[in-house]
Amino acid sequence: MTRTVSGARVLITGAAMGMGRLYAERAVAEGAKAVILWDRDPAALAVTTAILNERADGRSQVAPYVVDIADLGAIAQTAQRVRTEVGNPDIVINNAGIVRGSYFWEHDNGDDTRPTMQINALAPMYITREFLPAMISGAGRESRIVNIASAAGMLSNPRMSVYAASKAALIGWSDSLRLELTQQGHGHVKVTTVCPSYITTGMFEGARGPLLTPLLTPEHVVDRVWRAMLAGRPMLLMPWTVGLSSALRGLLPLPVWDFVAGRVFGVYRSMDSFVGRR
């Protein structure tokens, strides 16, 4: 499975559109045994399922599930259905996420802060916990967990405080899980943490890429993530300036970094025109 997902069961959250749908198309194209789609939009999920079934032509089972992963109880219920109806996934891609681009004092706790933390940080943990025991006891069969985080979880940025907090939590948990699995002799289960900058999915409509950090296309990101997943790569930063910025943030005194990030790279102004997906 280090070269292809052929014969594997692949679960993708936020699978009805955007990058989630691209991951699902990739899995079908490579002959996955089952492609398990989780999304909260039943209409979009039905359309994607029909397209994937046509492309699969019977070679892959396409299994759609309408589930809002902000409802942590629904995760357990849907996971049980998946285990019964399809089987435990070999690959889990925690792709679903939301963003609220406002100053912290403008956030509503119920409409903004709570769902952002539930969907971006808690849901990947709950989902992975549902399927991880079977992956660990899978007689050495290669398994993969992919967590789509964000560069925002590594670098502070105005108008992203809650989003950044959710992604920082995801990064900390994801890489700690990788270490735990390795240290406890479960190296056949590999975790990849993905930290991209802005992607042109509409989610960050209006955001501007900082200096030397172009907006990423979904197709490019999915291709890089897919290859990193198959290789079992621990962490993927995109583009290269994300790693550079993180290193500079650790080396420079904070006032100097604030000047470099704000005045030179333009990181602190990148969300000034943010409108998000309408």
Short description:
This protein has eight helices and seven strands. The chain is of the alpha/beta class and 278 residues long. The chain has one domain (9-269): Rossmann fold, CATH 3.40.50.720.
Q: Major sheet: order of its strands?
A: 3-2-1-4-5-6-7
Helix content: 40-55%
The CATH architecture can be named as 3-Layer(aba) Sandwich
Named CATH topology: Rossmann fold
Characterise the protein shown here:
By secondary structure, the protein is of the alpha/beta class. The chain has one domain (9-269): NAD(P)-binding Rossmann-like Domain (Rossmann fold), CATH 3.40.50.720. The chain contains 8 helices and 7 strands. The chain has helices at 18-29, 42-56, 72-85, 109-136, 161-183, 218-231, 240-251, 254-264; strands at residues 9-13, 34-39, 61-66, 91-94, 143-148, 189-196, 235-238. It has a 7-stranded parallel sheet with strand order 3-2-1-4-5-6-7, sandwiched between helices. α4 links the parallel β4 and β5. α1 (18-29) runs parallel beside α2, α1 crosses α6 and α3 (72-85) runs parallel beside α4 (109-136).
Write the layout of secondary structure elements.
Blueprint: E1 9-13, H1 18-29, E2 34-39, H2 42-56, E3 61-66, H3 72-85, E4 91-94, H4 109-136, E5 143-148, H5 161-183, E6 189-196, H6 218-231, E7 235-238, H7 240-251, H8 254-264
Parallel strand pairs: 1-2, 1-4, 2-3, 4-5, 5-6, 6-7
Helix pairs in contact: 1-2, 1-6, 3-4, 4-5
